[in-house]
Amino acid sequence: MRSKQSPANSRRLTGSVRTSRRTSPASTRPWELKLFSPLDTERFGWALGSALQGGETLALYGPLGAGKTSLVRGVAAGLGASREDVSSPTFVLIHEYRGRLPLAHIDLYRLNSPREIESIGLEEYLSGSTVAAIEWADRGRAILPEDRLEIELRHQSVQSRSITLMATGPLSATLLANTRRSHAHPSKLPLSKRVSSPKGKKSS
Question: Helix 68-78 to helix 38-51 angle, to the nearest 10 degrees?
Fold first, then answer.
């Protein structure tokens, strides 16, 4: 796992630029479902992670404690990275994980202006094969690619959450379709036993 705190330590990940950033978004019908436990959230994240092909942006929305980090933990597992390494990047703004694709876990919660967001080198993660999972994405809308998968998590009860996914372009629409197929076959998903958050780490 790699972590970043300042742009001085940033490096550009190689690969082709996401051409979909230059095209008009193509909206699709939102997909909404209920997640009944933190395990459900991680399992859904695994289905999402297993469907990733590289270069996607996951824009995560929702209040504190809604399960954004739990979802990313599942995404990391779906990519073959260690879920135990995943924690909220609130203080270390960007964490990098390596699975079959590079995953950048980014948190914009403490950033208050476009200048601050640009200073962390966010655009460097919006190219190539890197998957960018961005918590509090609403704070960086101006810099996000037009083609992204928007994911909103909301509290339903102490344990359960609702999740709504919306694709805004062809790349994210393909991801959404593949995630639906993966989620439709729960027997193929791991985490069959209840999964608790790694010790000392809270979900956001």
Answer: 40
Q: Rounded CA gap, 52 and 59, in Å?
A: 14
- 99 close to 81: Cβ distance less than 8 angstroms: yes
d(CA 58, CA 151): 7
- Please give the span between the terminal C-alpha atoms of the chain, in angstroms, as a whole number: 19
List C-alpha distances in Å: 59 to 84, 107, 159, 204: 22, 10, 22, 14
What is the pTM for the complete model shown? 0.78
pLDDT value at residue 124: 87
Burial class, 40, CB count within 10 angstroms (exposed 0-12 / middle 13-18 / buried 19+): buried
Give the CA radius of gyration of the chain: 16
Between CA 121 and CA 161 the distance in angstroms is 32
Confidence at residue 12, expressed as pLDDT on a 0 to 100 scale: 33
- In the chain, alpha helices (H): 38-51, 68-78, 114-119, 170-183
Residue positions counted in the chain = 204
Domains of the chain: 25-186 (3.40.50.300)
Q: Residue 89 burial by CB count (10 A; 0-12/13-18/19+): exposed, middle or buried?
A: buried
pLDDT of the residue at 89: 61
